[in-house]
Amino acid sequence: MDTRLLDGRPPGDAPSTHETVPPGARRVLALSTIAFTLMFAAWLMFGVLGLPIRDEFGLSDVQLSWLSAVAILNGSLWRLPAGIAADRLGGRIVFTVMLVTTAAFCYLVSLAGSYAVLLVLAFLVGFAGNAFTAGVAWNSAWFPRQHQGFALGVFGAGNVGASVTKFIGPVLVTSTAGATYFGVVEGGWRLVPVIYAVLLLVAAVALWTLTPRQDRKPGAGRPLREQLLPLRQVRVWRFSLYYVAVFGAYVALAAWLPKYYVDNFGVSLSTAALLTASFIFPASLLRPVGGWFSDKLGARRVMYWTFATMLVCTFILMMPDGYVVVEVSESFDASGTNDVLPYSIGLVPFALLVFVLGCSMGVGKAAVYKHIPEYFPTEVGSVGGLVGMLGGLGGFFLPPLFAYTTSWTGLPSATFFVLFVLTLVCAVWMHLTVVQMLHQQSPELADHFEHPTLAGETR
């Protein structure tokens, strides 16, 4: 029987209000967040660079979708090992290695001469995405429980890196096309990965020199089998599915929306990038708010509001533009066909709904990860790694699924039908879990719609 309270906290295990943040923790949080922001920007840079790459190499939409997808794939595969490594070796060394490695791969992207080479290099650059679970484990080790929701929310706000390329990419691509720098670096889209390579190396030096040398390693000396034991629990996989909906879908849309805006609303690449940023910013910057709400109100209550908002938004967005054709019988005077119930969504309402969708995802991402240190305080690396890995894999599978469902149906809005179904499955599973827990812990309330003592009261 699950004896957790409804907000996900073990009974009698409320967070202490007397624990203080240790020295060095804020430096760890600040520098890891900056480093994660840069790695996230490099990880998802093909969402904008993919369009000029498509023009240069003559790619189809499906080929273009795979370019983003393979980067997302490699940014997911190693999240479990990265989280465990940060627990056992310390986040300082893990983060530094990842920054230097990603910088090397970014530079090589600027030299690619074919689609096949780009696919390989996009896959390798995707290694940067694994920094998330390393950072979660690292910051969880440095912050006491009552501050973990907010701290992990601040770190997770590094997702805003997805919008960095949206801002600088189009400007750099158009203003530097045809130029050559230092005799070896070409302008246009090839300049962007070189800039990221330099910034990542600078971040590696800063993180290594400014964070505490005596790192915290909660998993050091513990058997690997013991760290992996919680992965047998169904709740870990349920949290993973939630994270597919709030993070995997976020990653997929961050890469997919520029193309969606260009192809369906006829806007320029720079406009599409700015509109996509209006989705990315709230989906990233509201993560600390989601962590704070989860600390104060309980993570599960926040997840209810998240899924409800996502369902409303995706339901409206999935409705295709068009109308119903009614054929009138010849026995009536006005025989023939009539077009009724016309429906279309303009650019402004579409962008506003996507903005609200991003807000709900930002809050929800923090709420999912708030559960992990509450249920598994000594296995954050392994559990957070699995949740992050499966969430990232959702971001890998979704862009090709968007492309194929659009191709099969001929409806661009099929993208949001996929997200609606995914969110509905998560919401139903979560609600059934809560109902089952209520029946187990309070069977006397199973047949009541309100508290029995209140139901008999008269006013």
Describe the structure.
- With 459 residues, the protein is mostly helical.
- The chain is 70% helix and 4% strand.
- Strands 1-2 form a two-stranded antiparallel sheet. It has a two-stranded antiparallel sheet with strand order 3-4.
- A hairpin with a 7-residue loop joins strand 3 and strand 4.
- The longest helix has 32 residues.
The CATH class name reads Mainly Alpha
Strand elements, count: 4
CATH superfamily: MFS general substrate transporter like domains
Number of domains: 1
Radius of gyration: 24 Å
Strand order of the biggest β-sheet: 1-2
What is the helix fraction of residues, given as a range?
A: 55-70%
Proportion of beta-strand residues: under 5%
Shape: globular
Report, as a whole number of angstroms, the end-to-end distance: 38 Å
How would a crystallographer describe the biggest sheet? Answer: 2 strands, antiparallel
- Low-pLDDT segments, ≥5 res: 1-17
CATH topology: Growth Hormone, Chain: A
Structural class based on helices, strands and sheet pairing: mainly alpha
H-E string = HHHHHHHHHEEHHHHHHEEHHHH
CATH architecture: Up-down Bundle
Q: What is the averaged pLDDT score?
A: 82
Q: Helix count, per DSSP?
A: 19
Domain Major facilitator superfamily (MFS) profile: 27-438
GO cellular component, one term: plasma membrane
GO biological process, one term: nitrate assimilation
Protein name: Putative nitrate transporter NarT
